[in-house]
Amino acid sequence: MSITQYYTVIDSPLGPLTLIGSSKGLSAILYDAHQKASINFDDYERNDKLSLFAKTELQLSEYFRGERTDFDIPLDMQGSDFQLKVWKQLKKIPFGSTCSYGDIAHRIKSPKSSRAVGMANGKNPISIIVPCHRVIGSNGTLTGYAGGLDKKKYLLNLECVIQ
User: Fold this and answer.
1) Is 132 a catalytic residue?
2) Are strands 45-46 and 6-10 parallel, antiparallel or unpaired?
3) Is the model more confident about 71 or about 148?
4) Per residue in 99-131, is it b (16+ CB within 10 Å) or e — as a string?
5) CATH-assigned architecture of domain 81-158
6) pLDDT 10s digits, 45-66
7) Cα→Cα distances 163→73, 148, 153, 158, Å
8) Dihedral angle sign, alpha carbons of residues 9, 121, 141, 95
9) Which pLDDT value is given to residue 93?
10) Is the domain 6-64 a CATH 3.40.50 member?
11) What does pLDDT average to over the chain?
């Protein structure tokens, strides 16, 4: 028996965000049409009333207002074992902090995998809540972000990491 996947679209200071989830939890937060282009929405049922989505929207709103630094949304992350290890480490980066791809590689006990960590970071489907925006280059520069560097900079400014 397959689990029905649902989606909805919410407003945010970063533009529309598409939430995807099921009874198991949230599986994606996607930015605009560029990122959503790879999703076949025929496989999903629109549901603007799902309690998971209401809770996610509330917590994201609190985050954007500076009233929330952590999320307690049930997640249904789907990826390779390596990706799941990286994403688990992303969730451990504290609000208002950053680290490098190399730092994450060391934390997962694979110190030579910085590039692979970068690839996994870029495939993180649950932006903001799994804070891939907190990963920067080892020299302190802002590196790629699936939502665009402008959104990464916005999120880091919101968390008072950069001015």
Assistant:
1) yes
2) parallel
3) 71
4) bbbbbbbbbbeeeebbebbbebbeebbbbbbbb
5) Orthogonal Bundle (1.10)
6) 999 999 999 999 999 999 999 9
7) 29, 18, 9, 9
8) positive
9) 96
10) no
11) 91
